[in-house]
Fold this protein.
Amino acid sequence: MLVVFEQRLPFIWVSLGAEQRQSLRQYFVGLFMKFARVDLTAETRPISSKITSVMVKLFLLGWQEWPTFIDDLVQQARNDQDICDSVMTALDMLADEMVEGARASENSEQNKPVGWSLERQAFVQSKLPTLAMLSLMII
């Protein structure tokens, strides 16, 4: 079910109002935190991974409406090592999406709204000191 939801998310997203988008983000962040706090089994690991992937995609779709995404994750990571590991996984997925989006943007003939724009890249780069601090916390 989450796979289908993730695939349809870009189409669903454009039909939602601001309040519904916020509720959807809060729901998936709550699920992310719930799964970050439990020991994952072979059965729950794929679900946790998909929830993390959906949360990252929600950020990518509405990054302008969610400027505190990275700061919020880092703040939560300060409190718990398991959450910190999950946050690092989410940030790794975000980095992968950035690289993939940049490649797609380079290969396309037109600038598509789905690709990473320079503005979005600048936004993430502005969060690098926060991410460096999180990395130091892990060490």
